[in-house]
Request: fold
Amino acid sequence: MPLLFYAAVKILDFKQSRNHFIQIFNSKYRFYYLCRPMNATQLVRQYQRNSLVSELDVQLKLPDIQKIHLKGLAGSSVSLVLSALFTRNENGILLVLNDREEAAYCFDDLTALCPDEMMLFYPSSYKRLARHGKVEQENIVQRTEVLNRINSKGKYLIVSYPEALIEKVLTSESLQSNTLPISVGEKLSIDFVNDVLHEYGFERVDFVYEPGQYSVRGSIIDIFSFAHEVPFRIDFFGDEVESIRSFDIDTQLSVKKFETIFVIPNIQHGIDAANKVDFLSYLPEKTLLAFRDLSYTVSQLDSFSDDLLSSEDPDMLLKPDMICRGEELIKKLDSFSVLEIGTQHFFKHAHIIQFATVPQPLFNKNFDLLAQDLKVNQSNGYETFILSNNEKQIERLQAIFDDREFNVKFFPLNFTLHEGFIDRDLKMVLYTDHQLFERYHRYKLQSGNKARASISIQELNKLHPGDYVVHIDHGIGKFAGLVKTEVNGKIQEAVRLVYRDSDSLLVSIHSLHRISKYKGKDGSEPQINKLGTGAWQKMKSRAKSKVKDIARELIALYAKRLEEK
Reply:
């Protein structure tokens, strides 16, 4: 109920109504949680000071190659221990989980705990299993980004899984020879860049919207490299690179300036096997390897290899000499320090470090049982943290405790992990709200394309003359194609929209966020607006007024209900 009330207040932004609501709300609900300042960075620092993490760090800094078995890590405690170790160490880490889903959830944890730019996800090139042969462009980009980052000698933590390791990769030397660096101020002709991109197999299009595409418009080249998740716009002044900017595919607006970028083609396929090596051979020798279950990883590599080699599909992209088998992986492990995380261990004489964590208990939405658990933890000297990236969920939990008159205490943390746990050594309890409320927890690998009302370049390419579109300022018109127009002495493309009485409106491709495809009732044609009449703005004002009326009614209704209680 308070959540809907807050939503209504936010729509109206009426100070008097808001203050009235807060007065009622505070008289009804008493908040028991403690406002201890804590964030993800501070939580990682607590684990940095953990004596077991210190022991692990000391062990790994010994001159000999180490094989270590970490026992007793439950839930997302693995992510916290590795985050603490990563921040204490200057070397890179490769973490191999048992499958893509487990890897994705762990990657989501790590990006919440460590700087995003240091976290890398290394997937298989394929959408499903490699034997199905369906390559995913987004995965190729992520793989290329990882290889490029390793070459740059920066610090990184890579999360992967067995199916991704089966594919051999381009050697470091071959990658460099297939990379076109472009820097601001560099002498470079548009014709030369065009020739290189053609040689790399890039497709020339009107507008780029996926990796492997480029477009040339006067003195501007747009390139979507396989080394980056966003495209770049390179502006030339004669034969000199004047500026480099990333831009949004949908709005075509610039996002960030860059001094140097690296243009890399699709390096996963079309490259001779002689120029490929297994992924571990690509890593620096000081990289720490961590496995959830090394024996399982080896068996999976062999299983995938046998499956691919037995395939009779002539179009199979992975050939026998492009596959890494389990025995090859084992041979490479002699050159690396290795962590095994879990109950199973591959190395019989590994140094053992015993943690004492247990998974978050199952409460099955029994909040009486949860309150009792929190009180027991408190009496035993444990600090309890509730993790949630939604503040309203914390308020909801407090409302439940208040309604049942539970005097319990906990510290809210404004981020979440995949699985909660109890750390007996640190006397710390970390519970996640999605497990308490039994909600599905989604992982997030990257920003991706968010749901939007605006039209995208890809959708624009699919529009036909006569299709209805909506401009946020001018209303409903008809799409009449792309035209070229001169703006400040430069030729640019624009979208031509036709309104009533054949009036035309040109919308720059940099303003695509202001138009969207019309979505109405099936089979019914909308009424086209007239430019310059103000009818569209009046209609929007009426709609906003109706929303405000509904919001007022909600405020009055809930204020009355709260006062009655």
Summary: The chain has 18 helices and 27 strands. The mean pLDDT is 83.
